[in-house]
Design goal:
Peptidase M41 domain-containing protein; two-stranded antiparallel ribbon; globular; three-stranded antiparallel sheet
Length: 200
């Protein structure tokens, strides 16, 4: 169901922040990431997962960005080309695949900085973060009256994410996440600019 992903991309970039001594520095993704709050870094990694997977299956996102206005369904959003059903499933479960990789590396924490356990991870990743992603993955909203999805659907979504997690180039994910963290919005042209040297 999941296509093999190829290529490893890396790009140092981002909005530069001026320090008092005139030195220019970039914000970086830290080793430990607050997944519970969630931190801006966790949000960037989630959106970068979608963008990375889209690029790897031949789709170019229109944008990934933070959403600062009221009325949004979340703190960030993206717009991806529709693609075929297989491409849509890959892109939809990619953010979970990134989060799973970070969880397995013991890099996700609660708000107090304590590494989270499996139950908390699943609650946050599948119960909260993947709400819209599961709709895109299954091409329909299967949430029940109790506001939960059928357990079999959650397991299928997680299995696809686990399968993808071993193929997803995490260095590209981090590069995209750091760009989003610094620039707040990455549009199609910027994504192509970042990726161009590595798509030869």
């Amino acid at each position: 169901m999941i296509k093999a992903l190829v290529g490893w991309l890396r790009a140092p970039f981002g909005r530069r922040e001026q320090q008092s001594g005139g030195e220019v520095v970039l914000s970086r993704i830290p080793h430990l990431v607050d997944f519970e709050t969630p931190s801006d870094e966790a949000i960037c990694l989630h959106e970068a997962g979608h963008a990375c997977a889209a690029l790897m299956v031949g789709l170019i996102p229109e944008f990934i960005e933070f959403v600062d206005g009221d009325g949004s369904q979340g703190r960030a959003r993206n717009r991806m080309p529709v693609g075929d059903p297989q491409q849509r499933r890959v892109v939809a479960c990619a953010a979970y695949a990134v989060e799973y990789n970070l969880y397995m590396a013991r890099r996700l924490t609660n708000a107090a900085g304590v590494v989270i356990g499996e139950k908390t991870f699943i609650h946050l990743a599948i119960g909260n973060n993947a709400a819209l992603d599961k709709i895109k993955f299954f091409d329909e909203d299967r949430e029940g009256a109790d506001k939960t999805w059928p357990a079999d659907d959650d397991r299928a979504f997680m299995a696809a994410g686990h399968q993808l997690s071993g193929r997803l180039p995490m260095d590209l994910v981090v590069a995209l996440a750091e760009a989003m963290l610094n620039e707040r919005r990455l549009e199609r042209a910027r994504l192509l600019e970042i990726a161009a040297p590595f798509l030869k």
